[in-house]
## 1
Amino acid sequence: MNQQMFILIGRSGCGKGTQGKLIEEYLRKNDPSREVFYLQTGAEIREFIKGPKLTQRLSKAIYDRGGLQPEFLATHTWSHLLSMNFKENQHLIIDGTPRKFHEAGVLHSILGFYGLKKPHVIYLNVSADWAVEHLMKRKRFDDTIEDIKARLTWFETDVMPAIEFYRTHPDYRFMEINGERSIEEIHADILKKLS
């Protein structure tokens, strides 16, 4: 198996983390000689905002009101982790990035730098209502319906342009997956489209 890169994108609560872990298992099973680097931006931001420093406190305030983190902070989070930890010849899975069109452009710049060819972009498409219901069941922090709806408001205006960038760009293998099914059905659909 050649070196692979996967970008998982979709609304909050769509199952990016779950499918990312299943893809990681698939890669480890089918290419045991190659390591997998799994980058989860959302998890990193949630850990970051626990700290006491100015940037952490400002970032937490944005998170608490359901806002979208500024591009510089989101980009710094994933680019710093990538530049410090990504090793030669590893498979790469990116979950939760990009969340804005310009961030997609920055992420695109890594392809040539690391020599990555034709990444797979997996758009897990779920409705806003489905995402709200799913996130309420998950109960992260002290989420209320209002908090969750606030976090989802920027999907159409900010994330969709990034998705369209990938959908139409010839350097990517874009797949749109119905995310409103069982974990197993979604994973099977992804594997089918990969082959």
Note: Residues 5-194 form a domain with the Rossmann fold fold (CATH 3.40.50.300).
## 2
Amino acid sequence: MSSLSNFKKSALILLLASSIAACGDNDNNDSIEDQEPVVIVEPEPVVYEFTITFSNLTAGQPLSPLSVIAFDETPPWKFGETASVGLEMIAESGANEEYLSDENALASVSAEGGIGPGETTSVTLLVDAQDVLNLSFAAMLGNTNDAFTGLSSVDVSTLEVGSSISRTTPVYDAGTEANTETADTVPGPAAGGEGFNEIRDDIADIITMHPGVVSNQDGLSNSALGAEHKFDNPVSKIVITRTQ
């Protein structure tokens, strides 16, 4: 009986030893040196092409060339925030070179020229993007001090090829120049005054809704603007069509 018991104990010890050895072999086989490196594959960017149609709905306000910026997260302007120098230049003079070079832009484009009352123009934008894609728009109302229209952000990442979305736009005040309407401060054809001025003399240096043109016929005696330069919202219509 004692011999049998000793035999069983010996067999158990051998079995445990074999298991330990096997575990040791498995650890060696699964060592870091033997593991395959993890390869992270970045998603391929999607090529988007958009045709943007821009219509001036006013009766007496010329609009500057439409400026379009594509971005993923940070728009070039936001309602209630301080205007960038680029947006200030658009709102005060219609010049958009500074604005279109925004550091967060994935791509940008400008229409070829200004757009008169009742007219329509179009522009094409091509951009590569991976995930979220937004478009932002801006154009000056020429017969004002610093009024502009546009859209801060429109998500177009899910727009299918051949599909369109349409938006109308109100008038914003860039908050960078007082609305004096004088001949020397309004750059449009109604006055031919100064455009961009880096001095900001508005009461609030933030983007707000524009209060509207007063004109020399409604109590602002030194205004270079007449009743024909007044406007009602919306002042423009933007149609975005994905063509690729």
Note: The first helix runs from residue 2 to 29.
## 3
Amino acid sequence: MFPLSVFPLPGELVPLHIFEPRYRQLLLDAETRDISFGIYFNHISNVDKLGSSVTLESIIKRYPGGESDIIVKCTDLFEMNTLFRTYRDKLYPGGEVRFWNVDITQMVDKKLAEAFVAYLSMINIVRHDRDFSAFHIATELGLDGDERLKFVRLDQQKKESFLLTRLKYQEKLLDQADKAKDIFHLN
């Protein structure tokens, strides 16, 4: 278990800088034993004790002092029942969790998919898949921790409504920014 103030969503890639000895040991175990580990969302608003199960995707850089830059991928969400200061004979923490078994293959409805494609076009992203999961869209929208907690608690229909509202808000912000650039002039 890796308590952090980030809450990755299923399918999301997250960069991490590993420097503490206990998490260097966790990285070694993830690399050599091909294990997944949990990122517990360590935040005051996380009253349900939610976290993300992640797997090691790649090690970007190893530093002479033993630190590493890595990329992990979120594969599932969990609720943590108990957090242990250390896990068995390891330096790093562990925990008892209940996995959610999130299905990231469930695609959103046509209306939301079309709104998301329009949003991607506004931010000049033209190469993308045509099928999107709600988690894919939520990740692209850059939701903060509280918004992510709210989002994951919703059923599929409410997730899509939440994302549609958020897309409309983002589009208004982009439109306002576009209008503002015509008002300001460089000296």
Note: DSSP finds five helices and six strands in the chain.
## 4
Amino acid sequence: MKLVFAGTPAVALPTLDILASRHEIVSVITREDAPQGRKRVLTPSPVASRASELGIPTIRANRLDDLVTQQVADLQPDLGVIVAYGGLVRSPLLETPRLGWINLHFSLLPRWRGAAPVQWSVMSGDNEAGASVFQLVAALDAGPEFARLTRTIGAHETSGHLLEALSHEGAELTAKVVDELEAGTARSTPQQGEVTLAPKITLEHARVDWSEPADVAFRRIRATTPEPGAFTVVDGLRLKILEAAPAYDTAAVLPGTLQNDGSRILIGTATTPIELLRVHPAGKKPMSATDWWRGLAVGQPHIADIPATNRVDTP
């Protein structure tokens, strides 16, 4: 079939690759080049770069407006496929492809509709995550579902690891649905169950509150790794937490208090301490927690910030 593909980040690449190997992608739609790094260099999105490698014409747009709609209409596609584009598809673009649009969404719909389903799934302590392929409609992630897959969330798995796995498994699922749509055998069913929302993750979501129980604090660390990056403030300086784990085999430590037990750097929570494994101090390179500890002032107690207000809870 003739496809239009809309996506932006790296998690969309497996689906783009598999569809490009089976169908004709007449255009890719992705967001405009964005500033990256300390020097804020304008950089194409991962999807834009891959489309260039594949020789696929690309439409760069942050809004799917009338101009984009006309460009898509001129291509006369059979189907639109969207994976993490980062914007809404509205009428009349919704109806422009002959078969409309399908969306690969990284959740078990209708749970976690919205921008950050994997992060909220991890943060909320879900045992399972998944991916759903559904018909795009005007309402947020509400269309009838063609197919889904389910995956157990590992006890130490981060959002980054989970999303990477789902992006590959979801690509196969999406390709299967596209093939069924081409053959006329695809069947969809209305979504069933409680609707929960997964709004965009902000930096405040990534700020660890050490007055919370260890399992809650650890879920927050895992959920916001690698983006936007879990952090705390120690001695007035921001400390990004790259790797950590609950230390179940040690005595309790006062919430927010840092302690070196001789081989590990521990930080207290409301229950079990959490061991810091790898950290990224402000203005320095990532390093082991023990190397970071050696650079701190000797003989002085080190306390991690505990937010007094504005604790961001799960929706």
Note: The mean pLDDT is 94.
